[in-house]
Design a protein that fits this description.
The chain is mainly alpha-helical and about 120 residues long. About 75% of the residues lie in helices and about 0% in strands.
């Protein structure tokens, strides 16, 4: 069961990175928007990708890095809140909200599960 949570956390982390990458890629397709909107849209994608990467680092090293755990928890809390507010303000569809909030919210929940961290390697 512990391995399932760890694998799920890895999947969610990579999915958040991919979603952020997709967000950045789609920015170049937004020809009808203002330059300022495109900058903010691209920046949001960067933030998503970085939070996904932070979750992957937390999964790999969180057991031994207390500072990383705390930063990851804070980033996940704020990204989840941001996703909820942004979805409401932009009028995102239910499907968009489910995917985005499901991923970042899933990352938030899984980041608090102690068993998601692989056992440390013992070398002599």
């Amino acid at each position: 069961m512990l391995r399932i949570f760890s694998s799920l956390y890895a999947f969610v982390g990579w999915a958040i990175v991919a979603l952020g990458g997709l967000h950045m890629f789609v920015t170049f397709q937004l020809s009808a928007s203002t330059p300022a909107f495109r900058v903010w849209f691209f920046g949001s994608g960067m933030a998503m990708a970085l939070v996904g990467a932070l979750n992957l680092l937390h999964r790999a090293y969180g057991r031994s890095a207390a500072g990383l755990r705390i930063v990851c928890w804070i980033a996940n809390i704020f990204m989840t809140l941001f996703a909820v507010v942004a979805g409401a303000l932009t009028g995102a569809s239910i499907a968009e909200r489910v995917v985005i909030i499901g991923l970042v919210g899933g990352g938030l929940i899984l980041s608090f599960v102690p068993s998601v961290h692989p056992a440390p390697l013992h070398t002599q």
